[in-house]
Write a structure and sequence with these properties.
- The chain is α/β, with parallel strands linked by helices and about 90 residues long.
- It has one domain.
- It is about 30% helix and about 10% strand.
- The strands form two sheets. The chain has a two-stranded parallel sheet. A two-stranded parallel sheet has the order 3-4.
- The radius of gyration is 14 Å and the shape is elongated.
- This is DUS-like FMN-binding domain-containing protein.
- GO terms for molecular function: tRNA dihydrouridine synthase activity.
- InterPro entries: Aldolase_TIM, DUS-like_FMN-bd.
Length: about 90
Amino acid sequence: MVGDVAETERRPLKDPVDLFHSGQVVKICAPMVRYSKLAFRSLVRRYECDLCYTPMIVAADFVRSAKARDSEFTTNNDGQWQKVMVHP
């Protein structure tokens, strides 16, 4: 599919602090809770958002429940690394 995330050229990862010193407009996305599932994150990438926040994943629930893991941490094989912070 034209414009598909998997077919787009990979952009190098950036240091978030450097974004604010670039002199360019920084595109930031901070979705509401439960609105940053995989489909949304793919759209954010397609439109080249520079920095995107995602909801916090509660470590206790993530560790105890396969349902929580499947719901909160879905990925695809688009070749990009994702950073996730899990709060205890």
